[in-house]
């Protein structure tokens, strides 16, 4: 009997040792921008979705490599009876942070909420006509025709709890005329791996691990607490990493990569981003406003466009402007996207051939034109444009550069009042149709909203429209290939490069760089 | 006296209205908020609907008039960027800026006066000359560079002080303060020095030249001749008489410390109204820009009004001016 107290003490000690085996790990994480709102349907924007992905979950997500992974749905397929219906089987045993059970009514509610006029997610759901729940663990989404890529549009569509949203009077997404924000903009109740613990917009957001998360044993879940702080100034952000005040920063400026990588205990990991940078030419106008050629539009001549494409030295931009941190591009689709091909993504520089084409087109003496460029949107955007100006000068085109903040640059494109412009494009659906709809199709009420080239090809438009409802994937992919051939032959855009993401981190953080620049913390390991 | 005050108050109100009008005429050139507010998938119909809702297509005098009408009822609208009431955001951010301004003002005053007196008394000493030379750095280097240098030295190399943010804050009523925690106090040091360095140099040089002037006057010589202690002469008699212009300048500089905290706040990610304003410009968040500019102009006009009124109280000659009409 005398030995018993000692035994108890030893057992206690052992238990304590066991529990301290998995210590509390806080991930201190910074990037340039903050989430704008916690309401998951109010903003279709990168940093906002990134924070939402820790708290809320969609039916399915893309993993760090860009392929689908089940989240709240375990399987999904088009209905065998009706090609206009997609059937989603939901995950059992999922609870929201407040303890409520997740079921099909929450999915129906959330998709309908995301379709309301105030929602910023509604454009991804235009094909959806009805969402119904035949039983608590099944959801059927009815579209206005067969929609083969519907699941791609749902990867950022977060599911809210119906009862919580209704009880807190947060069904309406956004109200700019009112005087109060919605409850959901500042509070959150998701099914995701982390619970909102505190948040001061633009200052700090703290999330703690959700103990009842369904995937607790399926993912590393090493991080028990997330402290997210936006740091706008690039130099300060890098300094915070160097001084050990943060563990992970997104968007390391290219000029600081060597410094971070050369510091003990820090690492830089890079991966191609889902974003391509290119120049657009207004070929549809009868005459350009900023050129010195009277009465004709030099960009309307395909030979001029080809010459300009040949004049761009992408390797030089990669080496000098981007310090190696880019992938030269020959087409305006990022490499992950369905329809991308290595053969089309090649581009070459050939000044004599370019000059010959200019001569042939009757512009041997060149012309002048203005290039509109953003200076605070893409990595080194203004410097890329400056390099392009020099390259165009080699074939006699005298380019005047006008670089402006993004708030002034993008209206030029959406209002189609620019002759020559820079644009970057990410493809959240990972499918070429998205590129064609916005950048290639003739501008009308539904499509072509970012096509400032003025290009219009009725035959091509019909092919683009057919993609939306073509269920035979091999036919669909063949059409996509045909469309790309026309785009390349017409030199619709001048591709520059695919952007590369650079994340800087403490060596203890184990993470793969996500092509959409959206780290999902549940995958992160900490040693 | 009353007529003078009323006239000054009336002039101040006119200045405020004009500032607002100029601000609203400029907003069109900052860019279009709609592109930032809607995702890249938005249709033309969405754009038009939102422009209509926000009244962005109205001519700017109409927009200004609507803003004034609402502002007089205490409603500054909703932030386009955050979708929250502007008044609430400003209230949330103001403590950070005011605490930073107070600390850097205190730093500039105490060190400025101290060093000013020192360099005046030891005019030919090595230390005084060294201080004067180094102080040139304070006036000639841009604020962001000073901030980055301080971060590099004290955060990255030495690891003593945080490079960004406010540390832990404590909420006292509606006010969030960084004065009550160790990390909050540490976080104040670098931004305060960055923000206050220019003012410190200014005050130091002002005190020094005033002091040199005063030290040459007869009553100081007589005080010395009477055998008063050097300390009494310097601080009781000389310093006191240099303070009048110093206080005037400092009062006006306090306004600019608050208004121009923008750069310091951006470098240190200091969550004050300056950083809010920079974000608002980038996003074309018109309600926030309008409210911020009105707030800053109210502050400047207010400080000027008080300074003007103080002159009347201090200087009898100004009172004589208004009395001349009788």
UniProtKB/TrEMBL annotation, chain A:
It is found in: Periplasm. It comes from the Bacteria. One of its GO terms (molecular function) is peptide transmembrane transporter activity. Keywords: Signal, Transport. One of its GO terms (biological process) is peptide transport. Residues 68-445 form the Solute-binding protein family domain. The keyword Transport applies. Gene3D superfamilies: Dipeptide-binding Protein, Domain 1 (3.90.76.10), Dipeptide-binding Protein, Domain 3 (3.10.105.10), Periplasmic binding protein-like II (3.40.190.10). InterPro entries: Peptide/Ni-bd (IPR030678), SBP_5 (IPR039424), SBP_5_dom (IPR000914). One of its GO terms (cellular component) is ATP-binding cassette (ABC) transporter complex. Pfam families: SBP_bac_5 (PF00496). Belongs to the bacterial solute-binding protein 5 family. This is ABC transporter substrate-binding protein. It comes from Meridianimarinicoccus aquatilis. The lineage of its organism: Bacteria, Pseudomonadati, Pseudomonadota, Alphaproteobacteria, Rhodobacterales.
UniProtKB/TrEMBL annotation, chain B:
GO terms for cellular component: plasma membrane. It is a multi-pass membrane protein. The keyword Transmembrane helix applies. It is found in: Cell membrane. The chain crosses the membrane at residues 12-30, 100-121, 133-154, 246-270, 290-314. Coiled coil: none annotated. Keywords: Cell membrane, Membrane, Transmembrane, Transmembrane helix, Transport. It holds the Pfam family BPD_transp_1. Its main location: membrane. Residues 94-311 form the ABC transmembrane type-1 domain. The keyword Membrane applies. One of its GO terms (biological process) is transmembrane transport. InterPro entries: BPD_transp_1_N, MetI-like, MetI-like_sf. Gene3D superfamilies: MetI-like. PANTHER family: ABC TRANSPORTER PERMEASE PROTEIN (PTHR43163:SF2), DIPEPTIDE TRANSPORT SYSTEM PERMEASE PROTEIN DPPB-RELATED (PTHR43163). Belongs to the binding-protein-dependent transport system permease family. This is ABC transporter permease. It comes from Meridianimarinicoccus aquatilis.
